[in-house]
Amino acid sequence: MPEKFDVIVVGAGPGGAACANVCAKNGLKVLMVERGEYPGSKNVMGGILYRKQTEEIVPEFWKEAPIERPVVEQRFWMLEKESMVSMGYKGKEWAQEPYNNFTVLRAQFDQWFAQKAVEEGVLLINETVVTECIQEDGKVVGIRTDRPDGDIYADVVVLADGVNSLLAKSLGMRKPMQNEDVALCAMEVLNMPKGKINDRFGLEGNEGCSVEIFGDATKGELGTAFLYTNKDSINIGVGTTLSGMIRSKIKPYELLEYVKNHPMIRPYIHDGESAEYLAHLIPEGGYNAIPKLVGNGVLVIGDAAQLVNAIHREGSNMAMASGKMAAEAIVKAKQNKDFSEVGLDSYRTSIYDSFIGQDLKKYKDLTHTFENNPQYLNEYIPLMNRAASQFFTIDGTPKWDKQAKIMKSMTAGRGKFGVVKDIYQAWKVMK
Amino acid sequence: MHIVVCVKQVPDTKVIKVNPKTNTLDRSSAPAILNPYDAHAVEEAVRLKEQHGGKVTVLSMGPPQAVKAIKKCVEIGADEGVLISDRAFAGADTLATSYALTKAIEKIQKKEPISLVLCGKHAIDGDTGQVGPGIARRMEIPPITNVIKIENVDNKESKVEIRRKIENGYEIIQSQTPCLLTVEKEINEVAYSPMPNMIKAARYEPTVWTVADLDDVDKQQLGMKGSPTIVGKMWPPAKSEGAKLIEGDAKSQVKELVSAVLEKRELFAQKGGK
């Protein structure tokens, strides 16, 4: 008889490792299976790690985790072809404990984070693909792997197998993804000496900066670009919805090249030496795309459960938080010896009651609104740029006249009524 | 039969960078892996054990993190693993390494006699292929290199028949056991490890010995002190230059290529052997 575990976690990313960690801390016997050569070897994200949810798994993690830089400045750039409106916030309080968020390189961070779970007693198996969930009498009772003698059994299987989650699909827990519910992001890591990064971004010591870029970076399609500073490299990337990419016939690598050569971005990254090139899908369907989270003997967490807040580019934190909530539900189920859908249901309610459910609900119509109303990106960002240009250009025109002219140009395209409608609509989906 | 396999953790030379100033390997630039030839040696030992019964013990020398290479061997099917790890071993060349490993094998042997010692052909970071024969010499057992097949194992008569690769074919030789074999990649395909092995390896904690755990050690023969080898100079192989890209459609590309090749007279043997 093959060995039986309390919990099997499929996938050793932030969600899986957090879940395994908390399960093991509570005395459960946990097996975590990872398909990559090591945890993190297959994982991709822009590179921002949030303190709060990480800290809940490993207190004061910044003292030992392989972080790159604490982020002390967040910038937002609204891009036109040859101009931009920029805003942001920089605060020295973010440069000291307990910090706000960090830049990380996933290949290193995930390895460390999974190792913390191993230190709690989790058994980690790498280079192994889980091909299906073993079901008996309508219950998930284990996993089948691609290895000889590869069946393993457990009371609960946690699916943390990422954005595509074939396992959740094959269990019928989620529907196939729609093109507008998923973004394709291409990114590159560019090596650059620390001093040069600090000079270009106006940073001191190990301070980091994150830049979120809207507008022309995605050629008017719904999406964003980003620029994050690591210790001695820069992450630059861009993503748009798959539907947008198909509509505008842009290839992801062409878009990334376009971003890298944009006159507003190029000065920050030029002569960086390309170290890594990555691409990944991001589930951005939001609230309406959340699948069935709980089944008999099975839970879905993180990207596999589509738990990503595309607006605030939060994903890894939601993965970790959902992993923790799943673990807590499993501990409860173990106490009650009930691993059925009902016995594990506290996971579902915790997700919907937490910031994850609340935040995703808040923005639930936002993607579709933007997707169906391209004027937000195509008209208003260029408008902002023109307005700023007019207002700040000293050409002898009185400021009153300038303002009137700007107001007029604001409403020229869509009409006064159209602009009011757009503002109301934007407010409605963001409120 | 008890088989000891000597293995090494090496940087993956497929991705390693060479420091352009010193020409030394920048070991931090590549992940540490089990030397590929050694994986074949472990696989062969495990297959022999499956056929003839017995036990496979893996032995390695290296820094504490080299336990990872031993765990990998347990995935392949090794029963046990020993790492000898001590500051005193650091900086060892092949002479000092073979001495330290021999001392460890002697200790293993005291508990359970050994029928075979297997090694990979060479490590991919140093490419010397000296440690295996060095161990054999010190243990005073026959060294047999470039092994591509272990044909017959006769435990009763303490004999083994081996096929080894030579320049223009192979030779079949018979040896007494114990003996030491260094294996080529052709000897087998490393099997995809079964799940129970993976779980066993994930749990397994290799034995770690320091110098103090070994018996009758002459410390003068260890590490840097015991290493007479001096690396005089190192350089990467010269890059070939003068490559030319032929452009145009397929037809004109072929035409230009053929005439370029025909112009290279040195490529063709001339009459009279000139």
Question: What does this molecule look like?
Answer:
The complex is a heterodimer of chains A (431) and B (274). With 431 residues, chain A is of the alpha/beta class. Chain A has 3 domains: 4-66 and 105-176 and 288-353, FAD/NAD(P)-binding domain (3-Layer(bba) Sandwich); 179-283, D-Amino Acid Oxidase, Chain A, domain 2 (2-Layer Sandwich), CATH 3.30.9; 367-430. Chain A has 15 helices and 17 strands. Chain A has helices at residues 14-25, 51-55, 106-119, 166-170, 194-201, 242-248, 252-260, 266-269, 316-336, 346-353, 355-362, 366-372, 375-392, 399-412, 415-430; strands spanning 4-10, 30-33, 48-50, 67-79, 84-90, 101-104, 123-125, 130-136, 139-145, 151-159, 182-191, 208-215, 223-229, 233-241, 273-283, 294-295, 298-300. In chain A, a hairpin with a 2-residue loop joins strand 16 and strand 17 (298-300). Chain A is globular. The mean pLDDT of chain A is 90. In chain B, the strands form 3 sheets. Chain B has a 9-stranded mixed beta sheet, with helices on both faces. In chain B, strands 2-5 form a two-stranded antiparallel ribbon. A two-stranded antiparallel sheet of chain B has the order 3-4. The N and C termini of chain B lie far apart (59 Å). Chain B has helices spanning 36-52, 67-76, 94-111, 131-139, 195-203, 250-263; strands at residues 2-7, 9-11, 17-18, 25-26, 32-34, 55-61, 80-84, 116-120, 143-154, 159-166, 169-176, 179-183, 207-209. With 274 residues, chain B is an alpha/beta fold. Chain B has a single domain, classed as Rossmann fold (3-Layer(aba) Sandwich), CATH 3.40.50. Chain B contains 6 helices and 13 strands. The A-B interface holds A 2-3, 31, 37, 123-125, 128, 145-152 and B 31, 191-196, 198-199, 202-203.
The fourth-level CATH homologous superfamily of the largest domain in chain A is: FAD/NAD(P)-binding domain
Let me know the CATH homologous superfamily of chain B: HUPs
Give the helix tally of chain B.
6
Tell me what the CATH architecture of chain B is.
3-Layer(aba) Sandwich
Q: CATH architecture of the largest domain in chain A, please?
A: 3-Layer(bba) Sandwich
Number of strands of chain B: 13
Fraction of residues in β-strands of chain B:
25-35%
| Dominant shape of chain B | globular
Low-confidence stretches of chain B: none
- Tell me about the largest β-sheet of chain B: 9 strands, mixed
Mean pLDDT of chain A: 90
Cα end-to-end separation of chain B: 59 Å
Radius of gyration of chain B: 23 Å
The mean pLDDT of chain B is 91
Helices and strands of chain B, in N-to-C order? Answer: EEEEEHEHEHEHEEEEHEH
Q: What is the helix content of chain A?
A: 25-40%
Number of domains of chain B: 1
